Amino acid sequence: MPPPAWLNFPKPNPNAALRLFCFPYAGGAALLFRPWPNHISANVEICAVELPGRGARLRETPLTRMDELVPLLAAALKPFLNKPFAIFGYSLGAIIGFELARLFRDAGAQPEHLFVAGRRAPQIRSDRSQRYNLPEAEFIDELRRLNGTPREVLEHPELIQMMLPLLRADFGLDETYECRAEPPLDVPISAYGGLADTDVTREQLESWAAQTTAGFQLKMFPGDHFFLHTSLSELITAINWQLASHF
Q: Domain containing 37: what range?
């Protein structure tokens, strides 16, 4: 049976001991994780999540509510929970992964580990005004400041017009999210951040510790909010080290 549209396997690894479900940042696609199998342990299979509105699902309407997205994800991933799994989420993806871990916990299927990167802890409200509904010029300026959208996209009118609905939807998904008060997870959490990230501070990352009773680790990497691109090898080395104890 072919994998559902929600999942992309850059390098299928049926003999892996553990699956790592990976969630991209706002506007990102499963393509982001294509290089990961070349660096991750041979015991790990990378399962890149493809959300509606991007990649092979470009014609689908992006989802804008977390309480709608997460149950759909859980149903799509359920057939792939037949072996141990972990979750990695970057920025927006960190919150999606966290809420998915909560839902799985309630259903009796917990991940081995939760990795969150480039996102303040869910219980911390943003001190920034909501950006997803900014006027177009201001929204594009914000994208430029964050330094995650390729310059060739920002400078190409047709490309940016194609991307704007998806980016606004993803920003809205993140910025309208409200964390419900629930018991912390009984899952180890590793939080990662960029030393030069002006949006997410070390203190905001440290606050993820309140969301687990099973151990917490924080590690900072060279780079800004998108240190994923500049410190990829170091990031995956850290993930490998954490996952080694689960094999």
A: 7-126+183-246
